Recover the amino acids of this structure.
């Protein structure tokens, strides 16, 4: 009778302090039964990866509204990989131009959501990512 | 990927690998199939020698900030520290926002500080057991000091606090009647009282109130309890608080109180696990009973337990 509560981490890498989006997503995930570890603003990619490892989350969600996503999101993916946790999927959100989305996905970001995305779609992406992660890690 | 097999997980645990520690705690918390093997693998001496500190108090008292300062001081002494930060699960969605880490992020790149957030998951039983298992895994991974941080409201959280060797109740001025309401609970079990935000207006009144409580406690149990003042955001009073804690620890180890508490919390954890394991079986029996639902529930419960005993005797 093992449990399947999904644990996720929501964090804001870099100097951008606009955390409304990150907090909105954190609350939406909580309201859908997720355990959300919220790390707050101005975290380095190394800090986010270390926290994700200690908390053993099934997915990491990043928010960026300052334009630094191109450097920061792949940096988190890389830090997770270095920490032996490259299997934890990273989902990003924020003000991100279309041409960057392809680039971020090439660099290992699982999915990107831009303003106006219905919240249900974001929850569904987290659910799918967590479910996949749980399956592979228990295999 | 990493640590999919039990052997590599146990190997990682022995090497104090953060990924393995994180995984192991989840497996035990989720009651996964490898849980027993993980718990059996832990070094019992390490578990025995670790010191568990409980930090409890109302929301906004500054528990996480104080915990972060305690971590800094312990680290400057070269101790490896584990933190279990417990937050409530939403009764509506079953989800939780675990935000205690925010105040402890400055330790996040320190490999000798292991922080784990845990949600209460609305369990009637099991939480105490899961937190106890996390304590053991952290101790087995070399943490000499473990801090359990929780609001301490409600029975299961009160039970968790009893896992600690020493419990500090953190309060702050301006939180109003919350503190009055705690009188019957946490004020009775705390070993130390901490007035945090001691530079704020109202701190002196609170200090005098708590001194009165400390004296009441001293009269009844013949054990005067300390009231410490801290300004956690500035690190003030933390050394003094840790000195009080160390003095209590030594006293408890010398008097046998330490061992008494450990055996009491052991019993509590065993009971918690037993209840957790029994629950689904009992629930199944209750639901399977096709009788009308208007008899007395207490008598029905006694019937079910009697029936389970009969079934059990038949098997063994």
């Amino acid at each position: 009778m093992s449990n399947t509560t999904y644990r996720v981490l929501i964090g804001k890498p870099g100097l951008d302090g606009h955390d409304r989006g990150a907090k909105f997503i954190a609350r939406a995930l909580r309201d859908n039964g997720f355990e959300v570890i919220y790390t707050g603003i101005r975290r380095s990619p190394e800090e986010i990866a270390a926290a994700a490892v200690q908390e053993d989350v099934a997915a990491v969600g990043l928010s960026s509204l300052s334009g630094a996503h191109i450097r920061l999101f792949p940096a988190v993916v890389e830090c997770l990989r270095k920490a032996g946790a490259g299997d934890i999927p990273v989902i990003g959100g924020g003000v991100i131009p279309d041409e960057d989305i392809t680039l971020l996905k090439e660099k290992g970001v699982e999915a990107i959501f831009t303003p106006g995305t219905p919240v249900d779609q974001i929850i569904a992406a987290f659910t799918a990512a967590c479910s996949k992660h749980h399956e592979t890690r228990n295999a | 990927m990493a640590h999919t097999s039990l052997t590599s997980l146990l190997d990682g645990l022995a090497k104090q690998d953060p990924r393995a520690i994180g995984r192991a705690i989840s497996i035990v918390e989720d009651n996964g199939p490898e849980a027993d093997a993980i718990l059996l693998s832990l070094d019992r001496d390490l578990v025995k020698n670790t010191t568990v500190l409980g930090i409890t108090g109302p929301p906004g008292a500054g528990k996480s900030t104080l915990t972060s300062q305690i971590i800094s001081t312990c680290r400057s002494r070269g101790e490896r520290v584990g933190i279990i930060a417990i937050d409530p699960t939403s009764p509506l969605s079953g989800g939780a926002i675990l935000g205690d880490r925010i105040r402890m992020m400055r330790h996040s790149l320190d490999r000798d500080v292991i922080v784990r957030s845990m949600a209460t998951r609305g369990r009637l039983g099991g939480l105490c057991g899961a937190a106890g298992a996390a304590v053991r895994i952290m101790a087995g991974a070399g943490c000499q000091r473990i801090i359990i941080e929780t609001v301490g409201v409600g029975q299961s959280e009160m039970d968790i606090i009893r896992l600690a060797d020493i419990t500090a109740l953190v309060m702050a001025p301006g939180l109003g009647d919350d503190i009055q309401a705690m009188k019957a609970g946490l004020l009775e079990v705390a070993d130390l009282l901490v007035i945090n935000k001691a530079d704020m207006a109202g701190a002196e009144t609170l200090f005098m109130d708590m001194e009165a409580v400390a004296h009441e406690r001293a009269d009844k149990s013949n054990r005067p309890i300390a009231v410490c003042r801290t300004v956690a955001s500035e690190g003030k009073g933390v050394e003094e608080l840790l000195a009080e804690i160390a003095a209590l620890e030594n006293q408890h180890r010398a008097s046998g109180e330490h061992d008494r508490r450990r055996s009491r919390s052991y019993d509590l954890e065993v009971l918690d696990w037993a209840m957790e394991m029994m629950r689904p079986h009992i629930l199944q029996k209750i639901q399977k009973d096709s009788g009308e639902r208007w008899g007395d529930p207490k008598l029905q419960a006694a019937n079910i337990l009697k029936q389970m005993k009969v079934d059990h005797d038949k098997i063994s």
